[in-house]
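Z., the sequence and structure:
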Amino acid sequence: MSEGAKGAVETKLAALGLTLPEVVPPLAAYQPAVQSGVYVYTSGQLPMVAGKLQLTGKVGAEVTAEEAKELAATCALNALAAVKSVAGDLDRIKRVVKVVGFVASAADFTGQPGVVNGASELLGAVLGDKGVHARSAVGVAVLPLDAPVEVEVQVELVQD
C-alpha cells in the first residue's frame, strides 16, 4: 500500500469520524505492542489524546460511568494504533481475540463491564465480526497517572 493510502479499517475509522492517533509513547520500560507469531499483544493503553489524559480520578467518584465508557473507547483506539505500529496495516487483523479492561473504581462502583463496553463497542464498530472477542473487566484501586481506565488488546493477524 502506498504511503498515505488507507486500508478498509482506517477508512471505516474515518467514516465513524475517528482518526488513528500516533502511538502513545511508553511511560516506562516496555513496548506499546509486540508481535509473537500471528498474535499482537498491546500494553495497557491509557485514554491519552495528544499526549494528555482526558480525565483523571476514580469511576463512580470524580468520573462518571458514561465518561469512563468514552475513555475506554479512546483506549481501544490507542490500542489499534499500537497494533498498527507492529503489524504495519490494520487490515491484517484476522480477529480481536481478547480485551482486558481495568477500571479505577470508587469503593462502591460495580459497573466495570459497562465501562469496558466502550472499548468493545468501538472494536465492533470498526472491525465488525472481526472485533468480537473474549473480555475481562476488572475494578482496581488506582491506575498509572490516576487514569480512570486502561485497556489492553490481543489480536490475531492473517498469516503472511
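The longest strand covers residues 93-104. The helical segments are 8-15, 65-87, 112-127.

Let me know what you think.
H.
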